[in-house]
């Protein structure tokens, strides 16, 4: 065996390992696995928002050639209670939201399954539904905790007193609409049973979670369930938890005794795969005559479903970005007759930063202060709850961004710059997202032919997870990357956390580093530096390592800049350029990292100017339920985005020194756009998206 050495893979730009497979169509997603005798399933959805199913007439569907079975709550297999009640599909006649699955048709072909679903007759007792979020809703309440385990309310000092003595004050309410993820690959599953064992190919961001959930629902030992997700076509959080498709496919496969394929349609995704809740956020800021924040209050209102409580942590970002003497941040939520909201890229921080960073821009305008300078002057070494930051280079991001963007000499007056018919404006916003690491396992094996195999149950949802994990493994082994093979996307590998919360690389990478270092030590210690013919293998678990870390507030930071133009006659907004400068620890792969941040910024610009899901309050149905009516940014809308990194070392993170970047890019982007619109026009838009009607 060649002597091991210190390699240099981490920090280098490397292409994605699976790139050729994807562009040539060889990569297999959940529906692409050929299985003999596979059949298809198609759900039947409730056409009302609240009520009870009285009866389901399956006779017309069963008369269609090719239809094998129709499942509904009267004949579906019983499931064990689940932590997420939305997964107890076809277990009850009760309907809690428009689009809830009330039946499932299984047929030999996809066409027959769809025809059968249209033929099913559902008789129901429909009840009045409450579907509209409003700030004065009598059902609003304060949950003790919100998403990600944050405390719902945090208070420090005396906000009322601090706000009263402030020289400059802002008190404004901001609104964000319902937004949907719309990943390119729909939520899809191929499932089959074999000798009492359940195997599924699922479009999921966490095969470990899906395995454990299915095992509990079907009362199976976890070792009798295998979930594979080698390739996943995007998720943005919507695939971070099991959805009804995987439960229905497994249920149908057991009933018909064949492999079952089920892919939700684009329209179905709007009600069955989660969404970003709408928010109503009141932000109050008070500053002294020099621009120092004295008081900050952030109250976030959102909606949840009657089936399960989900409260978006929108006010939490205020606890991280600024730390005035007097602070209060709260969350209130109301349960409505709507589909369950869920995680969507940067849950909490994304909508929360729009409100907070718009309010900071309003404060800068009111005090005649430079928006960049105001943020730098209010930089802090600790969060509101007192924990020191493991590292924080927000001020450096703002300074570096201002230099690169050409901020100096900016005329602060709104509507003061013109170019032909266009009004020109520039805006800025701060960004932050937690640097999370969860326990993970990994295995590493060396073979006698100087080859290494590393396995970790990561989910590559288009982020380049395979590539960066191989870079991390190669450096830990002291080998070149081409000597290392990586296996991901299989629950049989061992427990690993979700590809979400920007925790993937940090969590998987730590386990991989530990396994590879242990392997390297064992080869040197037990085998004199040479791999025996039978090979050497080790496993690693980082649970105790993570628990032993010192307590810090671990976050990545960034600064968002935007330049745009507005036509005052039509209200048309055109982006000219965006710049994001980020401090996110050690960058494992500059190519994939830049892509992640560029994608987040694009999504943030789309959020600012286009994205909204419209709900019909009479029916509780989403009327913008396809990509013709739900608008997202395309190439023509995003002419130029630049991404820069501020070098950052942080010894309190993980062996790689990395922070998550998948969600950081969207945080603050919408606020930067909105602030630029105000600078261009003098019109302050506090409700997204910013449409021509907002400006005319």
Structure description:
The chain is of the alpha+beta class and 696 residues long. It folds into three domains: 19-25 and 437-547, 2-Layer Sandwich (Aldehyde Oxidoreductase, domain 4); 39-128 and 186-234 and 239-266, Aldehyde oxidase/xanthine dehydrogenase, a/b hammerhead (Aldehyde Oxidoreductase, domain 3, Alpha-Beta Complex); 147-179 and 276-435 and 554-695, Aldehyde Oxidoreductase, domain 4. The chain is built from 17 helices and 26 strands. The strands form six sheets. It has a seven-stranded mixed β-sheet with strand order 3-5-1-12-9-10-11, sandwiched between helices. Strands 7-15-14-13-8 form a five-stranded mixed β-sheet, sandwiched between helices. A hairpin with a 2-residue loop joins strand 16 (418-419) and strand 17 (422-434). Helix 15 (590-609) crosses helix 16. The radius of gyration is 26 Å and the shape is globular. Residues 1-5 have low confidence and may be disordered.
User: Helical content, roughly?
Assistant: 25-40%
Rg over alpha carbons: 26 Å
Reported by name, the CATH topology of the largest domain is Aldehyde Oxidoreductase, domain 4
Q: Mind telling me the CATH class of the largest domain?
A: Alpha Beta
The span between the termini is 72 Å
Q: What value does the average pLDDT take?
A: 97
Low-confidence stretches: 1-5
CATH architecture of the largest domain: 2-Layer Sandwich
Number of domains: 3
Please identify which CATH superfamily of the largest domain we are dealing with. Answer: Aldehyde oxidase/xanthine dehydrogenase, molybdopterin binding domain
- Approximate strand percentage: 15-25%
Number of E strands: 26
**Quaternary organization:** single chain
Derived structural class: alpha+beta
Q: What topology, given as strand order, has the largest sheet? A: 3-5-1-12-9-10-11
Largest sheet: 7 strands, mixed
Shape: globular
């Amino acid at each position: 065996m060649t002597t091991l050495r210190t390699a240099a893979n981490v920090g280098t730009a490397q292409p994605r390992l699976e790139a050729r497979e994807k562009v040539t169509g060889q990569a297999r997603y959940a529906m692409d696995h050929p299985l003999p005798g596979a059949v298809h399933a198609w759900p039947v959805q409730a056409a009302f928002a609240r009520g009870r199913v009285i009866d389901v007439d399956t006779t017309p569907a069963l008369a269609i050639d090719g239809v094998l079975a129709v499942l509904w709550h009267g004949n579906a297999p019983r499931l064990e209670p689940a932590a997420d009640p939305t997964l107890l599909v076809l277990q009850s006649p009760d309907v809690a939201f428009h689009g809830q699955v009330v039946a499932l048709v299984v047929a030999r072909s996809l066409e027959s399954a769809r025809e059968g679903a249209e033929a099913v007759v559902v008789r129901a007792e429909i009840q009045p539904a409450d579907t509209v979020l409003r700030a004065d809703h009598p059902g609003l309440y304060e949950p003790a905790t919100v998403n990600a385990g944050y405390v719902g309310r945090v208070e420090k000092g005396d906000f009322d007193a601090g706000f009263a003595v402030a020289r400059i004050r802002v008190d404004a309410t901001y609104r964000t609409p319902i937004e949907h993820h719309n990943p390119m690959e729909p939520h899809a599953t191929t499932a089959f049973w074999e000798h009492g064992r359940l195997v599924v190919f699922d479009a999921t961001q966490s095969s470990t979670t899906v395995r454990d959930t299915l095992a509990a629902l079907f009362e199976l030992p976890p070792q009798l369930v295998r979930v594979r997700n080698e390739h996943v076509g995007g998720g943005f959080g919507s695939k971070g938890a099991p959805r009804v498709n995987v439960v229905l496919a497994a249920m149908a496969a057991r009933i018909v005794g064949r492999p079952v394929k089920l892919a939700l349609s684009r329209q179905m995704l709007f009600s069955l795969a989660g969404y970003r809740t709408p928010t109503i956020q009141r932000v109050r800021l008070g500053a002294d005559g020099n621009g120092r924040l004295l008081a900050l209050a952030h109250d976030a209102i959102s909606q949840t479903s009657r089936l399960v409580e989900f409260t978006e942590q929108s006010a939490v970002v205020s606890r991280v970005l600024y730390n005035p003497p007097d602070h209060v941040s709260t969350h209130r939520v109301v349960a409505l007759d709507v589909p369950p909201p869920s995680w969507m890229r940067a849950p909490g921080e994304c909508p929360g930063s729009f409100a907070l960073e718009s309010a900071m821009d309003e404060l800068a305008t009111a005090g005649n202060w430079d928006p960049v300078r105001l943020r730098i002057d209010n930089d802090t070494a600790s969060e509101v709850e007192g924990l020191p930051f493991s590292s924080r280079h927000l001020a450096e991001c703002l300074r570096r961004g201002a230099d690169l963007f050409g901020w100096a000499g900016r005329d602060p007056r709104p509507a003061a710059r013109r170019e032909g018919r266009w009004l020109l404006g520039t805006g800025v916003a701060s960004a932050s997202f937690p640097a999370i690491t969860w326990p993970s396992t990994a295995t590493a094996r060396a073979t006698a032919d100087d080859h290494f195999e590393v396995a970790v149950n990561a989910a590559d949802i288009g982020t380049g997870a395979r590539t960066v994990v191989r870079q991390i493994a190669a450096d830990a082994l002291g080998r070149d990357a081409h000597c290392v093979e990586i296996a991901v996307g299989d629950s049989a590998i061992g427990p690993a956390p979700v590809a979400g919360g920007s925790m993937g690389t940090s969590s998987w990478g730590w386990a991989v580093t530990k396994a590879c270092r242990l392997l390297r030590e064992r080869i040197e210690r037990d085998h004199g530096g040479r791999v025996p013919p039978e090979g050497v293998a080790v496993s690693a678990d980082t649970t105790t390592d993570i628990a032993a870390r010192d307590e810090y507030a671990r976050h990545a930071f960034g600064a968002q800049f935007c330049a745009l133009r507005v036509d005052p006659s039509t209200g048309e907004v055109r982006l000219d350029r965006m710049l994001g400068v980020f401090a996110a620890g050690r960058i494992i792969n500059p190519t994939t990292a830049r892509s992640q941040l560029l994608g987040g910024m694009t999504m943030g610009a789309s959020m600012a100017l286009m994205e909204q899901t419209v709900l019909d309050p009479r029916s509780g149905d989403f009327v913008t339920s396809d990509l013709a009516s739900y608008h997202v940014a395309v190439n023509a809308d995003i002419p130029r985005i630049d991404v820069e990194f501020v070098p950052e070392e942080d010894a309190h993170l993980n062996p790689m020194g990395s922070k998550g970047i998948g969600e950081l890019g969207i945080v603050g982007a919408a606020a930067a756009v909105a602030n630029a619109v105000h600078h261009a026009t003098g019109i302050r838009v506090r409700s997204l998206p910013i449409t021509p009607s907002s400006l005319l």
